[in-house]
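Comment thread on ticket #2218

A.B. wrote:
> Attaching the input chain for the structure job we discussed in standup.
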Amino acid sequence: MKPELQKIFTKLSEQKYQKVELNIVADIQKFVDEVFSEIEYSEQINKAMDSAWVKAKNAIEDLTKATEEVKSHLNNLDVKADAKSIKEKVKSAAEAIGVNPSAVKGYDEIDVAVKEADKQLQSAKINIRDSKVPKA
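C.D. wrote:
> Ran it. Output below, let me know if you need it in another format.
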């Protein structure tokens, strides 16, 4: 083969090699970029998940604390016996002086207060029932 042709084949062969090498380098770079992009995204979603777990944990702690407070307050809303006792005292005192118990200021509000306390008691019991902490 003539030296000139040999030179051309060598040159073409080198160019072909460089093109192949450039393609492989581009493939490597594309792969590395994609992997690091996925790693970055994974870090973001893991941080979001960690944040969500902290919020959920705090919400569960708040729910547990509030539920315990409501439970400890239930007895304060069970006022029927106390209301009955107060009404009997008012009736006795009113009869002793010859007046109608309804004429005593606030007497009629006792039943309204008992009714509202009972509504709140029932609502609190429903909230307690519904506030079962989910298992994680």
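A.B. wrote:
> Thanks. Noting for the ticket: Residues 60 and 133 are 7 Å apart (CA to CA).
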